[in-house]
Specification:
This protein has 83 residues and is of the alpha+beta class. It has one domain. The chain contains four helices and four strands; from the N terminus they run αββαβαβα.
Protein backbone atom coordinates (compact mmCIF):
# COMPACT_ATOMS: atom_id res chain seq x y z
CA UNK A 1 0.00 0.00 0.00
CA UNK A 2 2.81 2.44 0.87
CA UNK A 3 4.44 1.99 -2.53
CA UNK A 4 1.16 2.78 -4.29
CA UNK A 5 0.63 5.89 -2.16
CA UNK A 6 4.15 7.17 -2.84
CA UNK A 7 3.71 6.41 -6.54
CA UNK A 8 0.84 8.88 -6.58
CA UNK A 9 2.96 11.62 -5.01
CA UNK A 10 1.55 11.36 -1.49
CA UNK A 11 3.38 10.64 1.76
CA UNK A 12 2.87 7.14 3.17
CA UNK A 13 3.04 6.82 6.95
CA UNK A 14 2.00 3.54 8.53
CA UNK A 15 0.50 4.08 11.98
CA UNK A 16 1.35 1.67 14.81
CA UNK A 17 2.63 1.42 18.37
CA UNK A 18 6.25 0.34 18.74
CA UNK A 19 7.58 -0.33 22.23
CA UNK A 20 4.74 1.72 23.69
CA UNK A 21 5.41 4.73 21.45
CA UNK A 22 2.78 6.11 19.09
CA UNK A 23 4.25 6.14 15.59
CA UNK A 24 3.20 7.53 12.23
CA UNK A 25 5.82 6.34 9.78
CA UNK A 26 7.72 3.08 10.18
CA UNK A 27 11.00 1.74 8.84
CA UNK A 28 11.01 -1.44 6.77
CA UNK A 29 12.47 -3.29 9.78
CA UNK A 30 9.61 -2.07 11.99
CA UNK A 31 7.02 -3.12 9.39
CA UNK A 32 8.61 -6.57 9.20
CA UNK A 33 8.66 -6.78 13.00
CA UNK A 34 4.93 -6.00 13.22
CA UNK A 35 4.18 -8.59 10.54
CA UNK A 36 6.23 -11.41 12.06
CA UNK A 37 6.68 -10.90 15.81
CA UNK A 38 4.67 -12.84 18.34
CA UNK A 39 2.63 -10.86 20.82
CA UNK A 40 1.80 -7.88 18.61
CA UNK A 41 -1.60 -6.75 19.78
CA UNK A 42 -4.53 -5.39 17.81
CA UNK A 43 -5.08 -2.10 19.64
CA UNK A 44 -8.40 -0.35 19.95
CA UNK A 45 -8.82 3.00 21.70
CA UNK A 46 -9.68 1.30 24.98
CA UNK A 47 -6.44 -0.75 24.87
CA UNK A 48 -4.17 2.18 24.06
CA UNK A 49 -3.27 3.24 27.63
CA UNK A 50 -2.34 -0.33 28.59
CA UNK A 51 -0.19 -0.95 25.50
CA UNK A 52 1.62 2.38 25.96
CA UNK A 53 2.14 1.92 29.72
CA UNK A 54 3.51 -1.61 29.24
CA UNK A 55 5.67 -0.52 26.29
CA UNK A 56 4.16 -3.14 23.98
CA UNK A 57 3.85 -3.32 20.19
CA UNK A 58 0.52 -2.92 18.52
CA UNK A 59 -1.22 -2.79 15.18
CA UNK A 60 -4.07 -0.31 15.28
CA UNK A 61 -7.78 -0.55 14.58
CA UNK A 62 -9.31 2.08 12.29
CA UNK A 63 -10.49 4.12 15.31
CA UNK A 64 -7.04 4.06 16.89
CA UNK A 65 -5.35 4.86 13.57
CA UNK A 66 -7.61 7.88 13.19
CA UNK A 67 -6.84 9.06 16.73
CA UNK A 68 -3.05 8.63 16.38
CA UNK A 69 -3.00 10.15 12.89
CA UNK A 70 -4.73 13.26 14.19
CA UNK A 71 -2.01 13.64 16.85
CA UNK A 72 0.55 13.74 14.04
CA UNK A 73 -1.42 16.29 12.02
CA UNK A 74 -2.58 13.76 9.43
CA UNK A 75 -6.00 14.83 8.20
CA UNK A 76 -6.63 12.23 5.50
CA UNK A 77 -5.80 8.55 5.69
CA UNK A 78 -6.64 5.24 4.05
CA UNK A 79 -6.68 1.82 5.61
CA UNK A 80 -6.50 -1.71 4.32
CA UNK A 81 -8.13 -3.17 7.45
CA UNK A 82 -11.16 -5.39 7.03
CA UNK A 83 -11.87 -6.34 10.62
Amino acid sequence: MEEIVRGQGAEARTVAIIGGELRAGLSEAELLHLATAEGVRKVSRRDLPIVVARKLDGATTVATTMWIASRFGIQIFATGGIG
